[in-house]
């Protein structure tokens, strides 16, 4: 085997605050790619699912996270179950309190539904970020700490703030197009190992473009 064991929850036994969350027990409507980790110094990273809020199986929305993502502590995924009906005078959810108020329980189609939440590959999500329902974050994106993401994030861009806004692109359009075609995260373990220096180097992208173009 080359590299850490992707099948282990804690691949580095010396670090018990970082785990590969694809190895947690499976949860309905949650898909997590290999090597994606969650880091939490305040509580066990095994409690990652606690950060997926208002996620009700009957609604059918999914949280899909790609490979090689880095997710910091305090990141919250708000799912569609948090939404209230908004086409009436009030958005107050009378029905959940009983006492006869359940007569106005909305049908699923009457509730706002933003679809699945999709996090690409090689995405870095900083500490205490909140991601709202139905958001799509592209491959290679970076979300600054304490941001609230309310709109889609393009690949290889940096977003930050509340609400999160575009800060800058990480690379030129030409290089981003190349990386999206390269999809290094789908390489086998040996190929990744043999290209580690290029993947982390300031000039590695230029070298890979020379090799592959």
Keywords:
single chain, 7-stranded mixed β-sheet, 19% strand, UDP N-Acetylglucosamine Acyltransferase, domain 1, 2 domains, 213 residues, 4 helices, alpha/beta, globular, 15 strands
Q: What topology emerges from the helices and strands here?
A:
Layout lengths: L17 E3 L9 E3 L4 E3 L12 E2 L9 E3 L4 E2 L4 E3 L38 E3 L4 E2 L4 E2 L4 E2 L4 E2 L4 E2 L7 E4 L4 E5 L3 H10 L6 H6 L1 H5 L3 H9 L1
Parallel strand pairs: 2-5, 3-6, 4-7, 5-8, 6-9, 7-10, 8-11, 9-12, 10-13, 12-14
Antiparallel strand pairs: 1-3, 14-15
Name the beta content range.
Answer: 15-25%
CATH architecture of the largest domain: 3 Solenoid
Q: Please state the overall shape, judged from the principal axes of the Cα atoms.
A: globular
Question: How many helix segments?
Answer: 4
The side-by-side strand order for the widest beta sheet comes to: 1-3-6-9-12-14-15
pLDDT averaged residue by residue: 95
CATH fold assignment of the largest domain? UDP N-Acetylglucosamine Acyltransferase, domain 1
* Domains (count): 2
Structural class by SSE content:
alpha/beta
Number of strands: 15
Oligomer: single chain
Order of helices and strands: EEEEEEEEEEEEEEEHHHH
Largest sheet: 7 strands, mixed
- Mind telling me the C-alpha Rg? 20 Å
Bin the helical content: 10-25%
What is the name of the CATH class of the largest domain?
Mainly Beta
Can you tell me the residue ranges where pLDDT is under 50 for at least 5 consecutive residues?
A: none
């Amino acid at each position: 085997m080359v590299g850490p064991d992707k099948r282990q929850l804690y691949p580095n036994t010396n670090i018990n605050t970082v785990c590969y969350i694809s190895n947690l027990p499976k949860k309905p409507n949650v898909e997590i790619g290999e090597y994606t980790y969650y880091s939490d110094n305040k509580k066990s990273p095994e409690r990652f699912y606690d950060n997926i809020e208002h996620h009700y199986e009957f609604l059918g929305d999914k949280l899909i996270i790609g490979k090689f993502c880095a997710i910091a502590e305090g990141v919250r995924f708000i799912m569609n179950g948090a939404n209230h009906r908004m086409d009436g005078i009030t958005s107050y959810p009378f029905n959940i309190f009983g006492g006869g108020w359940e007569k106005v329980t909305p049908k699923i189609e009457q509730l706002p539904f933003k679809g699945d939440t999709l996090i690409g590959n090689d995405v870095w999500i900083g500490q205490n970020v909140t991601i709202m329902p139905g958001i799509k974050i592209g491959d290679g994106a970076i979300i600054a700490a304490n941001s609230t993401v309310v709109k889609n994030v393009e690949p290889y861009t940096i977003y930050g703030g509340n609400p999160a806004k575009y800060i800058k692109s990480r690379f030129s359009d030409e290089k981003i197009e190349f990386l999206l075609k390269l999809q290094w995260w789908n390489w086998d373990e040996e190929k990744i190992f043999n290209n580690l220096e290029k993947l982390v180097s300031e000039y590695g992208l230029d070298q890979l473009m020379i090799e592959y173009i």
